[in-house]
Amino acid sequence: MNTLAYRLSAPTQPASRAVSTALRLVLGAVWLAAGLLKINDPEGMVRSIRAFRILPEALVQPVAYGVPFLEIALGVLLVAGLAVRVTALVSTLMFALYIAAIASAAARGLRIDCGCFSSGGDLSAGASTHYTSELIRDSLLLAVAAVLAWRPVGYLAVDRLLDRPVDDRFGSDDDDLED
Amino acid sequence: MTSKTRSGGRNGGPTRGSAGQARAGADQPDTDGSDVLRKPDASGSGGGSGSKGGSGSGGGRPVDKRRSSADERRAKAAAARAAEAARERRRRNWIVAGVVVLALLVAGGIGFAVQNSREESKPVVLPAGSTGTDHGIVVGKASAPVTVDMYEDFQCPACEALEKQTGSTFRGLLDEGKIKIDYHMMSFLGPESKRAANASAAAANEGKFRQLHDVLYANQPKEHTGGFTNATLIELGAKAGLTSQAYKDAVNNGTYDGYVAKVDSDAGKAGVTGTPTVLINGRQLTGDQLTPDGFRAAVSAAS
């Protein structure tokens, strides 16, 4: 009975779900765009990651080649709404890493383009950096991902189909990983 | 009331409901009613018994007790089923989470494999004259005492500005035999840069790197506008005295694409973080040292 009461009080109100759905689709679209823009320029991605001068040379190529695919996979999962909490948590972690990387580049005075949505890398002498706007943008995305991890239940999600058969009518559309 | 609705809902549900029921029955043999009554208070389904007791307070005590003990059993069974369902759900959620994380890692791995195979397709063909560090193309008299490492991209506007400002000084010092220049033509600004760098390697192979280098900077198209097509590069090559079929073929076939990619990545590994980067004896020149006077001073300081 406690479980029932808990489930009814769980955040499954339409408003919460609508917001969650919107955030999920936005985040998914952002990942898809970010990944697709980078996928055709692997060398650009290598240069961009190398320019941060954080990873050892041996890791630069694997990370540069793998990350765009990872981003696209996250985008697909989020748009489909499969394991939303997990993908949102992974997204949060990735944005945190990006923010840390950009902040450290800024702190070390490197003059690079973050390569967030394209092939970045070093800027030529005249070009200006956009660290502040890049950090603000990634922080907003981090916040979106964190909210989504907190309230992953929305409409139009594969999670809801998966959730149905196991449980009764009341608990069926609760969130995943509620404990 | 609530417990009734719930068990009704459960009975219509899948087989798991009956499994839960069986387990609850095994835990709680219905011989001792009082025991059944006490236990739920601790287990947390006391809310149901409380509300039931309140509603049935008008009836006789023993009857009420028996009825509520039956309710308790049902509630307990329901709770056990709920717990079972929750466990099942948790288990499934962890499986989904694991599968998804694994899928993400596999996606990254596939990406690495795909991009890797794409990269390795171009063989590295070294053009004649690529005798500098990391196979840079060396220009100038062999006896020149000072070697200048020059990292440029044919599409980079700042490089064009440098060539315009200090190019004649470079040419003068090269001709005087005071310096030789080790050219590392980078190609990170897109396909136009790669095509131009490929053409410059083809020119080097015929000993005309310098000529083509200067012609390309004199005719630099706006960045990323699709300039430096193969046709343009053959045309500009003719201006630099490159009219051979070998040059045209090398431009059209991308003969030196592998070399160009290697020069670019070697430059990155060498820590060159932008173009133009000019080094004398491994030390990067500042903006001031890239003016004609500044450069001359830097060269004479090094020689």
Describe this structure in words.
The complex is a heterodimer of chains A (179) and B (303). With 179 residues, chain A is an all-alpha fold. In chain A, helix 2 (14-39) packs across helix 6 (131-150), helix 3 (42-52) crosses helix 4 and helix 5 runs antiparallel to helix 6. Chain A is built from seven helices and two strands; from the N terminus they run αααααββαα. Chain A has one domain (15-150). Chain A starts with a helix and ends in a 16-residue tail after the last helix. A two-stranded antiparallel sheet of chain A has the order 1-2. Helix content of chain A is 66%, strand content 2%. Chain B is of the alpha+beta class and 303 residues long. Chain B has two domains: 2-117, no CATH class; 133-302, Glutaredoxin (3-Layer(aba) Sandwich). Helix content of chain B is 62%, strand content 8%. Chain B is built from twelve helices and five strands. Chain B has helices spanning 2-11, 16-27, 33-43, 46-55, 61-119, 157-175, 191-205, 209-218, 230-239, 245-253, 257-269, 292-302, and strands spanning 137-139, 146-153, 179-186, 277-280, 283-284. Chain B has a five-stranded mixed sheet, with helices on both faces. In chain B, strand 4 (277-280) and strand 5 form a beta hairpin. In chain B, helix 7 packs across helix 11 (257-269). The radius of gyration of chain B is 40 Å and the shape is elongated. Chains A and B meet through helix 1, helix 3, helix 4, helix 5 and strand 2 of A and helix 1, helix 5, helix 6 and helix 11 of B.
